[in-house]
Amino acid sequence: MAGLKSRTIEELKGLYEFKLSPQEFISEALVGEMARLTEVTGKEISIFLSRSGRVLDVSVGTDKSVKLPYMRVRRGSAGVSGIRALHTHPGGSPMLSSVDVGSLLSSRFDAMAAIAVKEGKATAMCVGFIGEKLDQARITGPFRPGRIPQQALMHEIAAVTERIQQLVRLHETEDAPERAVLVGLNAPQESMEELARLAETAGAQVVGSLTQNRDRDRAYYVGKGKAQELSLQMSALDADIVITNDELSPLETRNLEETLGVKIVDRTMLILDIFAAHARTREGRLQVELAQLQYTLPRLAGEGVSLSRLGGGIGTRGPGEKKIEIDRRRIRRRIFELQQELGKVAEQRELRRTARRENDVKEVALVGYTNAGKSSLLNALTDAEVRAEDKLFATLDPVTRRVELPDIGEIVFTDTVGFIEKLPHDLVSAFRSTLEEAARADLLLLVTDASSPTAGRQMEVVRELLSSLHTDETPKILVMNKTDRLEEQPEAGKDTVYISAKTGEGLETLLTLVAEKLAPQFMTYRGTLGYDRGDLLALVNRSGKDVFLDYRPDGVYIEARLPVEVIRKLGA
């Protein structure tokens, strides 16, 4: 009520004094007073009435809209809310707007009424009720203020109550998805489309989208005015949740929740939720839990000294320890425990890598943007039977499979977690040991969706993240996947191959190029090994070419063409 005179505020408070009988929908006197105050303020006025006829809330909006504070707080889970909402339209029509209808449906009000006001007097009123389906409305009227069918409208509320209870019982076994509105700041269309795919992967139904081009508002993300506009859009679309395209600060999240009255989920929280749903192995679950706790810790909100831990006796006086401090300590302790457990997992992974290196087993890591087809490619190359779906982050846990290549011997292919733009730092930190599979590999296959219009930008994201893992010197092959979706296949450049993991096209060419990249560089070696180094002698016989051995008193003289890696070991 900012900007209103104190006398006007007192008159508005006087609306709480009105008391209707259970048979009255709204009295002529209350309609007249709402119309008079609408003319005085020049703004819309809304009131909320209980079934007993008591005024529960009075709100003042602008000349075009009014906020409905009970919109989502009092929604009935088993039927209608038991509240009817009435508001004025200054100098306007009595017809209900799309926002009015959306509010009626989303909050399951008993009824929603709009009162047209002209020159301080009410001219007409329309009333909306939920129709034969939960997503349909039925509008009656317009009625003249002196001829409102009170009993008929109250009878309709009773009929709606019974009808909605039956509809809810029919739908209560259905697991309806959350209805989400996407919000982006300076976000291109491709980024919002990716956010929509993330939301759908998490199980939400995207019903709307809003973008704003401006400098970031550190209090409301998209600005207070845009947030209020979004509140009306949420009502019209009957949305349950807002998903932002950027990570929000605790202040931004709190302010948006207060303005919109719904749950706010930022991009980081959304990706963490998807990871939590798709993690299958113990290591994957540990990594996701660590990332979630690291994200949650700075966002804990307490409730002041009311949550202090108090005791009696000497030494326990004072405010005590707040619950939020206890929660923070518990989270820090759990983060430490998870880091210790993941450290052990990383040691085990390093032991396996060491064993492969000692046996000269080459490792090829499949890296790329999420949903580029890495798991499908691994299945096509190795019959790995890894779950592959047309979803973002369908697989998280690294999978390693062995393959025998001519002239190379046994190599292993490892599928790694997919990358994405704005990948949360907490996830990168938590999945460090998994990402090291790419950092330690002998060869990287950069798998890209060739059919994606944003393939170039996706590769930039992948290369930036790989650079942060210090893989600039690692040999790479650019694998352009999903060529079955292309009308015309471009000509492959150096270290680039076009394939279709789905049809098998180009896989032989890819394996040939992999063999060329992994083929050892041979050099001529001449030297003597002591008789106590039978392990190295076996390595020479296994990996050398044109091997000549001469057993002499001081050891075994060797002349052979050997891989450079083997020669290094012999020199050591």
UniProtKB/TrEMBL annotation:
Family annotation (InterPro entries): G_HFLX_dom, GTP-bd, GTP-bd_M, GTPase_HflX, GTPase_HflX_N, GTPase_HflX_N_sf, P-loop_NTPase
UniProt main location, coarse:
cytoplasm
Q: What subcellular locations does the record give?
A: Cytoplasm
Ranges where the Hflx-type G domain occurs: 362-522
Its keywords, alphabetically, are: Cytoplasm, GTP-binding, Magnesium, Metal-binding, Nucleotide-binding
Q: What is annotated about its quaternary structure and interactions? A: Monomer. Associates with the 50S ribosomal subunit.
Similarity annotation: Belongs to the TRAFAC class OBG-HflX-like GTPase superfamily. HflX GTPase family.
This chain's function reads: GTPase that associates with the 50S ribosomal subunit and may have a role during protein synthesis or ribosome biogenesis.
User: What name has this protein been given in UniProt?
Assistant: GTPase HflX
Say which species the protein is native to.
Christensenella tenuis
